[in-house]
């Protein structure tokens, strides 16, 4: 491995800006770190370069632990965000700067400079001043400068900055070609999804300082594991789908389970009628918006407005608002021209189920006042919004009483009020097969620290999956709490969440 990060954490004022990031980049790989602004990309890149100290974890470059090694000794080339060349130095002097600092011989410096200028396609421009170059050319010089001392690793932080689209694309090509030519391990940081797809052999998606997923662009696009990656890597319709789950034990009766499914706009099919679809029927809807964008047509379909005899697939329901975004190619438009307001049947070529244990939230309470209080909890409202999921309520007077026969069982996460009566409510819901149950104190606010505990190994997997899912949506720190009997042979083991 070229670059190995092991549980790297960096805090500013007690907030983890980079949170427990582990990553391995192989030799010659072009790795792209993608994430929204403020997600910790630059901080992580600076930690690799040695420009920022880490609070926890280890940085290894080519098998050497460099966590405590200074930036200059890490053999890393770096191009900063909003990078500026030395304005008073010529292109040649800029490129030679690092070599001069290292006291390389003049002849060697000139040879290297010429070689690099050829590589970036600016041969012969040695004597120009930065002001005499275009923005794109300046950035190329910046790349050449970062490569001058033959670093083993190249780190690029949003090197395309404020350049316009056409120049960005040119520069993208140059950087990709240079990287291939030199076969240098590279990490590029960007917030631009298209750029990430165009450049990366592999991508890593960051949010809230966490590295959520890594993988090849196409794999992440078609089979993301998280809502965030699903929606950040392009337009995605998130749907709730009911699946029958077989009951395994008397305390876990058969019930429907709800899963989160992703439908990419280009994987939806539109037809005049259900019978005309060649794909799996999703439902009927009306064309609410229609936008021509050149190569593609973008449509927004309002689902389920027809009702009546034309029933919607009962196993799939769109999350509110009940719209499906669809894109169609020119041939698709020609074969079935559409107008605003038109009724259409929607089919799905490909639906991907996210492996998240958290689907929608159903507030369960004995009275409507209690239900309202829970459903209006600001943190819950915020969480549901971040998860782009449904938040609904169910009033059941006999929620905690053993005598009342079970009513309609929530298929997603059941939310009950903490406090008096909570254990009875939870027991009843669990007995009806409801999983998971969230107990929410009335005054609950966004957690800063999350304590993870499971009583036995049986609960380990489910607990960890649940915690991981929840933590993707809150910028909180996780602490694992294990309780071991005093006579346990494992007593001395310091089992932390990191080991988990
Ligand atoms: P990105 O590059 O993904 O936009 P950054 O790594 O620059 O994100 O920043 C992540 C978070 O850390 C931001 O909220 C930013 O305000 C904060 N941050 C970065 N550097 C510092 C610093 N030196 N002191 C305090 N906070 C910082
Ligand atoms: Mg940044």
Question: Averaging pLDDT over every residue, what do you get?
Answer: 88
Question: How many β-strand stretches?
Answer: 25
Sequence of strands across the biggest β-sheet: 6-7-8-3-9-10
The major β-sheet equals: 6 strands, mixed
How would you sum up the global shape? flat
Helical percentage:
25-40%
Please give the radius of gyration in angstroms. 28 Å
The DSSP helix count reads: 13
Task: Provide a descriptive summary of the structure in words.
The chain has 500 residues and is α/β, with parallel strands linked by helices. 26% of the residues lie in helices and 30% in strands. The protein is built from 13 helices and 25 strands. The protein has helices at residues 41-49, 91-101, 106-119, 135-147, 165-182, 193-199, 217-222, 227-232, 330-335, 368-375, 378-386, 422-431, 460-471, and strands at 3-12, 15-25, 30-34, 56-61, 64-65, 76-79, 153-157, 185-190, 202-207, 210-215, 237-245, 255-263, 268-271, 280-292, 296-303, 316-318, 323-329, 343-348, 352-354, 361-365, 391-395, 413-417, 437-440, 449-452, 477-480. The strands form six sheets. The chain has a six-stranded mixed sheet with strand order 6-7-8-3-9-10, with helices on both faces. Strands 13-18-14-15-17 form a five-stranded antiparallel sheet. Strands 2-1-4-5 form a four-stranded antiparallel sheet. The longest helix has 18 residues, at 165-182. The relative contact order is 0.09. The site of adenosine-5'-diphosphate (ADP) has 10 residues, from α1.
